[in-house]
mannose-6-phosphate isomerase (Microbacterium pygmaeum), 390 residues
Amino acid sequence: MALSNVPRDYDWGSATLLPELQGRAPSGAPEAEVWFGDHPGSPAMTSDGRPLNVWLEDEAAGFGIPPRLPYLLKLLAAGSSLSIQSHPSRAEAAAGFAREEAAGIDRDAADRTYRDENHKPELIVAVSDTFTALAGLRDLAATRRLLGTLGAAGAAVAARLPQEDEDPGAQGDAMRETIAWLLSGDAGAEIDAIVAAGEAAESDEFAAELALLRTLGKAYPDDPGVVIALLMNLIVLTRGEGLFVPAGVLHAYQAGLGVEIMAASDNVLRGGLTPKHINVGELVRLLDPAPGLPPVLRPSPQDGAAAFEVDVPDFALTHAIVPAGRPVSVAVGGPAIVLGTAGAVTVRGAETGESITLEPGEAVFVTPDEHAVRLDGHGEAFVAEPGAEA
């Protein structure tokens, strides 16, 4: 069953990446995300004219599956920075949702933090040649070297960082305090000084980070996220590489086209580079303050299919590279979505034999009774499905 949707026009979206993928003229507006899923905020449309969430409500029982997908699959096209953010664990989300329900905060209120009871781990895989992201907190010694390129302005922030020889608990407390201070509204002079110093700062080691500082300083003047970004790892994925972001890890995608899959949730704890509400206390309380580089996932293809290993029950994602004349078979253990990203790939159900050919940016919903899909043609596709324990 074919799926389609229209791009969402968030300000950070690229005007060209999605049109180039789909071989069409740009609309002139930013095109940030295309959602392929049943999320009520932007459900995909099925070929029979029903939104996918309505189709599942009507038909899921016949396939012995729940009427909601546990995952949301997207094409994401970043032309500028998304907000710095993290997400709660499932237990934290349930507790926070209950608190805000008891407090009578409307679920659509701008200052609402928990809009559901679910966690939101996510995986982004580069589809463009490169995909740039901020993710996780950088090694403290390296961050001190970076801040050292910014003179007195950098030293003022460095003085608030944890010491490398402190125990992890004390380090974590100090990092939370530093981020809370930056977001408190009391660090305006320091933020302005960092942005000003970045205009002239030079470093072979941190040339990319300083270039990003200048970009963010122009786009988000006076925003504390400009300085928080300096505390984070700058990661550049190459095509086919993935980045998994678990609960509590700060991240902000910067530039590029990717396939993103996440648990079905709207729970976002923002930490800068945004005009939206920032719940500082909740963000720092649930923050994972441990420094370190998040692992970049580089799965090895087996018979044309490369599965990204992530330890969550909500979703699984497989990247299929289909050479001409060499079909690829991918087993599916639940309701699946296949998304084409290159060439022309024909998706054929293993049980019914029904088939649909996907051009880049097109998707098809596969019911679980197919058990597997056969991919023919010449191109690439991603297969999303629930995780093994969902």
About this structure: The chain has two domains: 81-298, 305-385. Residues 81-298 form a domain with the Jelly Rolls fold (CATH 2.60.120). Residues 168-183 form the longest helix (16 residues). The two ends are 22 Å apart (CA to CA).
